[in-house]
């Protein structure tokens, strides 16, 4: 049997040291029918030179500036020749059978559009067994240990495989997201169209998340918040949009105020001092909240058009997704 060709797309920005480990492990795979496309966000650390010298078969695309995550992956997907696309972060180390295990899942069930590897930290702890969406559209990362294929709301872009025909049908990643939650948006829209998103527990990938600068944390907080708001507007039916936005701000705001009061007034919190300060650094400031809302208002026409398109083509309702616990308040 001829195995389907896989197009592995890696987005890179000044990640030469990460690429060395990632590519070394990747080319030890037991799967033979694949190509690798590196989309570089105008790196200045010698990443491209390293790749072209050591891995001449890799297709390299250099962009003229840092385009984030969504657009570079779309650029790579446009030239991909594979039947399936495999999006892989440069901060991963793969195992030999990680591709073949995901391919098995896609071959077994035609309704599966997206398959994620089980992501582990270098020490073996679970980094992610998929993302889930609650009833007001808040996204959380599951770190449950699993030993069988499991349906999830969305797959993590650190290592996920998707059928190219469905990726094209969905219009790829939403490039206005830049980075953060674009993988959640893609998974959510896949479910809306009646497809499945799953985790393959036997496909193991090790994922290292590095420290980011305060400037990048600020950018991540902005994109993270405005993208979460955008998803609620576009991916819920009209009757759920206003309610989800209102509850989101109430729940989110109440939670953060409680943490702040516990820490500043009582002098105690269930979080450590370091965890608390890190949380504050990563979470949006009032300035970021205002900036995010302003972005939503300035892009309301785009969001309205996307909302109309998503709901016009909807196969599964929010109520249906709640019944099968793809949208659920139960921690999974």
Can you offer a commentary on this structure?
The chain has 332 residues and is of the alpha/beta class. Helices cover 45% and strands 19% of the residues. It has helices spanning 16-26, 47-54, 70-79, 98-108, 164-170, 182-192, 214-235, 238-266, 273-282, 286-298, 300-312, 318-323, and strands spanning 6-12, 34-40, 59-62, 84-89, 92-94, 112-120, 126-128, 131-133, 139-141, 150-151, 159-163, 196-207. Strands 1, 2, 3, 4, 5, 6, 7, 10, 11 and 12 form a ten-stranded mixed beta sheet that branches. Strand 1 (6-12), helix 1 (16-26) and strand 2 form a beta-alpha-beta unit.
Helix content: 40-55%
CATH superfamily of the largest domain: Spore Coat Polysaccharide Biosynthesis Protein SpsA, Chain A
Distance between the first and last residues' Cα: 37 Å
Main sheet record: 10 strands, mixed
What is the CATH T-level topology of the largest domain?
Spore Coat Polysaccharide Biosynthesis Protein SpsA, Chain A
The fraction of residues in strands falls at: 15-25%
What is the CATH class designation of the largest domain?
Alpha Beta
Q: What structural category do the secondary elements indicate?
A: alpha/beta
Uncertain parts: 268-282
Taking all residues together, what is the mean pLDDT?
Answer: 89
Strands, count: 12
Order of helices and strands: EHEHEHEEHEEEEEEHHEHHHHHH
Number of helices: 12
What general outline do the C-alpha atoms trace?
Answer: globular
Number of domains: 2
The CATH architecture of the largest domain can be named as Alpha-Beta Complex
From the alpha carbons, calculate the radius of gyration and give it in angstroms: 20 Å
């Amino acid at each position: 049997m001829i195995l389907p060709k896989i197009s592995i797309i890696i987005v890179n920005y000044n990640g030469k040291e990460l690429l060395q480990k990632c590519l070394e492990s990747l080319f030890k795979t037991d799967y033979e029918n694949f190509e690798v496309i590196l989309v570089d966000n105008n790196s200045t650390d010698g990443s491209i030179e390293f790749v072209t010298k050591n891995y001449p078969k890799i297709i390299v695309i250099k962009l003229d500036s840092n385009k984030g995550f969504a657009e570079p992956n779309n650029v790579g997907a446009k030239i991909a020749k594979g039947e399936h696309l495999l999006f892989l972060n440069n901060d991963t180390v793969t195992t030999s059978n990680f591709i073949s295990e995901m391919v098995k899942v896609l071959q077994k069930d035609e309704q599966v559009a997206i398959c994620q590897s089980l992501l582990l930290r270098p020490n073996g702890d679970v980094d992610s067994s998929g993302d889930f969406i609650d009833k007001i559209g808040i996204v959380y990362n599951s770190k449950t240990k699993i030993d069988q294929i499991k349906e999830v709301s969305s797959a993590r872009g650190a290592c996920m495989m998707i059928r190219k025909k469905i990726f094209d049908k969905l219009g790829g990643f939403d490039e206005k997201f830049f980075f953060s939650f674009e993988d959640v948006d893609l998974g959510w829209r896949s479910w809306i169209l009646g497809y499945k998103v799953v985790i393959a527990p036997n496909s193991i990938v090790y994922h290292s998340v590095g420290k980011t600068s305060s400037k990048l944390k600020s950018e991540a907080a902005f994109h993270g918040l405005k993208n979460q708001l955008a998803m609620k507007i576009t991916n819920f039916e009209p009757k759920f949009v206003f309610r989800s936005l209102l509850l989101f701000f109430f729940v989110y705001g109440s939670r953060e105020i409680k943490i702040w009061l516990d820490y500043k007034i009582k002098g105690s919190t269930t979080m450590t001092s370091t965890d608390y300060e890190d949380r504050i650094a990563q979470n949006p400031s009032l300035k970021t909240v205002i900036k995010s809302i302003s972005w939503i208002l300035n892009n309301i026409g785009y969001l309205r058009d996307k909302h109309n398109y998503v709901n016009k083509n909807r196969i599964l309702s929010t109520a249906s997704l709640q019944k099968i616990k793809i949208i659920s308040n139960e921690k999974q």
